């Protein structure tokens, strides 16, 4: 369905580097769970732009809040008090129960900031010698793509090294903390707890392909952290804000993390905004000049976030995610696809595991992604092509959800046959 209109844009796009290997589709419009390209072709969104569109695309209340702020007060916020940042802090207290927040722009900023807070806490409160505080993570995690957050993540590409020391899934005495394996965390903490300030973990691993930890893992990990006076940091950049059927996915395990990282959907998908949330016992060690960024907590982003949090509560986004996540899985299972061996995740954070017996150079995640897009459905490939992310906005209309599942199932059958 492409004409010279798309080709001209793609020619210009040649100069844009990086990103997540986008499909050659020039999108120009998005409403709730429907997308349109420059040609007017329609797509059903089963991707949510990597868990950004939790409140649907272009929610009118969120767009209005952002546009008003852009018209009235579009400056960066660094030197004055921004009233909607103050309002956002109160909303976070009301909804999530945390005393304070510090806002940044990207998810990577928030995990980097949480690392700084934890290290300072380790030095000031726990008494770890200066320059020694470690932030432990888990294998296959993803906390961002900058040098410091690549270092937190488990498999940085050597080409970008050297990496930041004292962060990552290997403890100072060499214990590899495997995601989901409580014994490895126990061993690492037993050996190195004196210089470990924090354990940072994704409640469900998102970028690794939507990987669920075993039942009870998060609570056990939290209890171990408490036993060894180690902060428990939940990276809820992908799992938080209703995506999994909970306001925070940690809550499902009865865990209230010391620090929570939020991003992606925080400003309703209309502006970059991330945050670290925590209570006074930890957050009060932050002093002026410790943390900040010129555009962090700028009025359009914080105004959008206040509106997004209102929508989160008023429109029962977490409940919608739970209910429609259940329906999504029922519809997918009813298709009886032998090529799919199961589904992971929770709520509207879902991945189809491709049956290894069927995965071939012809049948795999990237090819399925392309075929689905051709037929008007946006999904994404994950886990080296062995899984397909199916993550619609929780606000998706039920008939669109059913239509998307039908397209997905037909693409699986056609690609494999
Ligand atoms: N943490 C998690 C759990 C994520 O999934 C991501 C992004 N996929 C990030 C951090 C980084 O967020 P950003 O891309 O906004 O920097």
Automatic annotation (TrEMBL):
One CC-aspect GO term: cytoplasm
Keywords assigned: Aminotransferase, Pyridoxal phosphate, Transferase
InterPro entries: Aminotrans_3, Aminotrans_3_PPA_site, Class-III_PLP-dep_AT, Orn_aminotrans, PyrdxlP-dep_Trfase, PyrdxlP-dep_Trfase_major, PyrdxlP-dep_Trfase_small
Catalytic activity: a 2-oxocarboxylate + L-ornithine = L-glutamate 5-semialdehyde + an L-alpha-amino acid
Signal sequence annotation: none
EC number from the UniProt entry: 2.6.1.13
GO molecular function annotations of the record: identical protein binding; ornithine aminotransferase activity; pyridoxal phosphate binding
Pathway given in the UniProt record: Amino-acid biosynthesis; L-proline biosynthesis; L-glutamate 5-semialdehyde from L-ornithine: step 1/1
PROSITE patterns: AA_TRANSFER_CLASS_3
Swiss-Prot/TrEMBL cofactor(s): pyridoxal 5'-phosphate
Gene3D superfamilies for the chain: Aspartate Aminotransferase, domain 1, Type I PLP-dependent aspartate aminotransferase-like (Major domain)
Pfam family, one: Aminotran_3
Gene Ontology biological process terms from the UniProt entry: L-arginine catabolic process to L-glutamate; L-arginine catabolic process to proline via ornithine; L-proline biosynthetic process
Protein's UniProt keywords contain Lipid biosynthesis: no
Similarity field: Belongs to the class-III pyridoxal-phosphate-dependent aminotransferase family.
Protein name according to UniProt: Ornithine aminotransferase
């Amino acid at each position: 369905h492409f004409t010279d209109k798309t080709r001209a844009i793609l020619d210009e796009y040649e100069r844009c580097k990086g990103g997540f290997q986008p499909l050659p589709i020039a999108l120009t419009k998005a409403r709730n769970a429907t997308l349109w390209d420059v040609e007017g072709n329609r797509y059903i969104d089963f991707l949510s732009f990597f868990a950004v569109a939790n409140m649907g695309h272009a929610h009118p209340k969120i767009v209005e809040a952002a546009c008003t702020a852009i018209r009235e007060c579009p400056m960066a916020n660094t030197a004055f008090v921004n009233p909607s940042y103050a309002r956002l802090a109160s909303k976070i207290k009301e909804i999530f129960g945390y005393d304070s927040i510090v806002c940044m722009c990207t998810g990577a900023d928030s995990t980097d900031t949480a690392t700084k807070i934890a290290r300072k806490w380790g030095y000031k409160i726990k008494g770890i010698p200066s320059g020694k505080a470690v932030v432990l993570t888990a294998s296959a995690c993803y906390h961002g793509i900058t040098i410091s957050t690549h270092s937190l993540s488990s498999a940085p590409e050597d080409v970008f090294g050297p990496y930041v020391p004292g962060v990552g899934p290997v403890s100072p005495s060499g214990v590899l903390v495997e995601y989901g394996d409580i014994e490895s965390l126990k061993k690492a903490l037993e050996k190195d707890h004196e210089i470990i300030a924090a354990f940072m973990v994704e409640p469900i691993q998102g970028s690794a392909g939507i990987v669920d930890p075993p039942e009870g893992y998060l609570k056990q990990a939290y209890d171990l952290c408490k036993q060894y006076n180690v902060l428990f940091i939940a990276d809820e950049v992908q799992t938080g804000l209703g995506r999994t059927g909970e306001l925070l996915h940690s809550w499902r395990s009865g865990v209230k993390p010391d620090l929570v990282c939020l991003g992606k959907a925080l400003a309703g998908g209309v502006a970059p905004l991330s945050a670290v949330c925590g209570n006074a016992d930890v957050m009060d060690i932050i002093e002026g000049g410790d943390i900040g960024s010129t555009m962090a907590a700028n009025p359009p982003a914080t105004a959008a976030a206040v509106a997004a949090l209102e929508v989160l509560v008023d429109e029962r986004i977490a409940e919608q995610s739970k209910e429609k996540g259940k329906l999504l899985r029922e519809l997918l299972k009813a298709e009886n696809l032998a090529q799919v061996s199961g589904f992971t995740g929770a709520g509207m954070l879902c991945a189809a595991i491709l049956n290894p017996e069927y995965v071939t150079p012809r049948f795999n995640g990237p090819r399925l992604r392309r075929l689905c897009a051709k037929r008007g459905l946006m999904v994404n490939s994950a886990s080296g092509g062995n899984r397909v992310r199916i993550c619609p906005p929780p606000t998706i209309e039920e008939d669109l959800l059913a239509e998307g599942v039908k397209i997905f199932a037909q693409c699986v059958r056609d690609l494999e046959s």
